[in-house]
TrEMBL record:
Cellular-component GO terms for this entry: cytosol
Protein name per its UniProtKB record: Alcohol dehydrogenase
A molecular function (GO) term: oxidoreductase activity
Originating species: Flavobacterium aurantiibacter
Oxidoreductase among keywords: yes
One protein family per Pfam: Aldo_ket_red
PANTHER family per UniProt: NADH-SPECIFIC METHYLGLYOXAL REDUCTASE-RELATED (PTHR43364), OXIDOREDUCTASE-RELATED (PTHR43364:SF6)
Keywords, comma-separated and alphabetical: Oxidoreductase
Ranges annotated as spanning the membrane: none
NADP-dependent oxidoreductase domain mapped to chain residues: 16-311
InterPro entries for this protein: AKR_Detox_Biosynth (IPR050523), NAD(P)_OxRdtase_dom_sf (IPR036812), NADP_OxRdtase_dom (IPR023210)
Length: 318
């Protein structure tokens, strides 16, 4: 039986894993994407995260590929109300389409609605901060979109603690809808960017945290054991410097715990995230149904205090 967690002060409840749609239209085609989405939903999981920029970086793509694949799939799904669709805008889409100014955000939401073939978006997120735009302008635009029924709730991604505090104060003082979630870069290997001030701010503001790069782009799956393995994936080159003493300690601990729980290192790394304060559910991607099932195993893992302590110890920054 899946355990669902609620986003504070909303009607959103999600299963223990959020599927990351950045792979759709990039490393997997439409047919495989549909197979994975169907398997994900059939197992009772319910939240899918994407962004307008996915996957503009791939040769021949312009952005919106992921949203469009999800939209085609979503148009055939009969239970839209049981699925949480989260998307994002704000990163550079070219031709001046970037940032969090009101006019652009409104057009970006309309484009995402068309791509996703839906009347509303459950969670719309500022993909990155825009220091050139006053936060009250952004929040007022979001408030209008919420009032119009085009989005239900809003979230932030890649924001600092100070900017989250500022946004919260503006929303409170001007009676606008506040950010309800934060999407930070956080995993067992990359802890320092989130833990401390940012995590404390999320707790103070009751923000539900949905970490991205939860598996450090594959490093925490155990697929990469040396620099020779980096050719296994187009992402492999991202962590050539991870093959240090700390990285090896982490992989060794994940190996031991995955053997003890009869699961995979990836599932253990995700289970560790679920035990951290403020975490709603981690975002992770798969390129096959087999990989997906390995990730979904996180729902059945309950790490004990000693196991959490071990992972904390081996992953601590030296």
């Amino acid at each position: 039986m899946l355990k669902f967690k609620s986003v504070p002060n909303t009607e959103l409840k999600t299963a223990p894993l959020i599927f990351g749609g950045n792979v759709f239209g990039w490393t997997i085609d439409e047919k495989t994407s549909f197979q994975i989405l169907n398997a994900f939903i059939d197992k009772g999981f319910n939240m899918i995260d994407t962004a307008d920029i996915y996957s503009r970086w791939a040769p021949g793509n312009v952005g919106g590929e992921s949203e469009k694949i999800i939209g085609k799939w979503l148009s055939d799904v009969k239970s839209r109300d049981k699925i949480i669709i989260a998307t994002k805008a704000g990163m550079d889409m070219g031709e001046g389409k970037v940032g969090l100014k009101a006019a652009y955000l409104k057009s970006a939401v309309e484009q995402s609605l068309r791509n996703l073939k839906t009347d509303y978006i459950d969670l719309f997120q500022s993909h990155q901060d825009d220091p050139e735009t006053a936060q009250d302008e952004t929040l007022r635009a979001y408030d209008e979109l919420i009032q119009a029924g085009k989005i239900r709730y809003i979230g932030a991604s890649n924001f600092t603690a100070d900017r989250l505090q500022e946004a919260s104060e503006i929303a409170r003082s001007q009676q606008l809808q506040p950010y309800r979630t934060l999407q930070p870069y956080y995993n067992l290997y990359m802890r320092e960017k989130f833990e401390g001030e940012l995590q404390n701010t999320c707790a103070e503001l009751q923000l539900a945290v949905i970490p991205y790069f939860s598996l450090e782009s594959g490093f925490l799956t155990g697929k990469y054991r040396s620099t020779a393995d980096l050719q296994k994936s187009i992402r492999g080159g991202r962590f050539a410097n991870h093959f240090n003493e700390r990285g090896m300690r982490i992989l060794s601990a994940l190996d031991a715990l995955s053997a003890a729980h009869n699961t995979t290192p990836a599932a253990i790394a995700l289970a560790w995230l679920l035990k951290q304060e403020t975490i709603l559910a981690p975002i992770a991607s798969a390129t096959s149904v087999t990989q997906l099932n390995e990730l979904l195993a996180v729902a059945d893992i309950n790490l004990n205090t000693d196991e959490i302590r071990l992972l904390n110890l081996v992953s601590a920054s030296s």
